[in-house]
Protein: Sec-independent protein translocase protein TatA
Amino acid sequence: MSLYMLPLAIGPWQIALIVVIVLLLFGGKKIPELMRGLGSGIKEFKDASKEEDKDEKAKKE
Structure:
């Protein structure tokens, strides 16, 4: 394994630790709101990238 790939090797214990830390920092009631915002941000990004692709194709034609 390369030295650069080492930080990307996340196992189940690391994921569990991250989940526990997030729960402690934000609380159980705030997490669904955070995930909803993250999901809408990803959706907007995908829509913008699709629109960019359409603009690129229209310029080529």
